[in-house]
Amino acid sequence: MMPPNIDDSVSSSDVIVREGANVTLRCKATGSPPPSIKWKRDDNTKIAITRNNSVVLEWEGDVLTLSRVSRYDMGAYLCIATNGVPPSVSKRIKVSVDFPPMLWIPHQLVGIPVGYNVTLECNIEAHPTSLNYWTRENDQMIHDSLKYKTETIPGNPSYKSVMRLHIGDVQHSDYGIYKCIAKNPRGETDGSIRLYSSSPPTTIPPSTTESITTTVPSTRVYESPYGLSTMTINHFDKGELA
């Protein structure tokens, strides 16, 4: 009896393919008794099996076929060989899926008053990682300065990122069109954001209600043992001042 051993010479290594292509991963192992092979993703997400149109956590067999792969299939796959004789062995195979940049913009129209700071944002998906930059409407590239600060924030999964352009102390000359641009070896794309002037926010004081007391004199007639008399009586009415 012999524990399993994966033969790297006839097993797949890391692979890079374009989105929409087919991928075949192979894993061959020796041992006594003959090992069985199962596949799983390194991050424990499910595997899309096109052959029977199913999604599974594990797949059994020497060969794993992924048809018309997408960015969602990108990641590391483990082939695990077992035959009941410890230890089991595994091989990690990384599948990279290349595709041109795609972007979407949460807010294409952004209003900001003069003197305020503002942040423009574009969401990017690309593999390999794209080169990202911003321009004004005259195609002049924007560089970091006292006025501008640019940043790209990596996302999860790794093919996602967020481009941000911070503009400080907005002036009339800052209004107009800004373009976010992403390029990689598979292609490029861009999107536009229009920055326009808006009124500054107004602060409305909270509504208050104050109670005030007013003195209202009234005259009443009453009868005393000495005849009819008059008396002025002050009584109090409560009013409200909004």
Automatic annotation (TrEMBL):
Keywords: Disulfide bond, Immunoglobulin domain, Repeat, Signal. Residues 4-96, 100-196 form the Ig-like domain. It holds the Pfam family Ig_3. It comes from the Eukaryota. The keyword Repeat applies. GO terms for cellular component: neuron projection; plasma membrane. This is Ig-like domain-containing protein. It comes from Anopheles culicifacies.
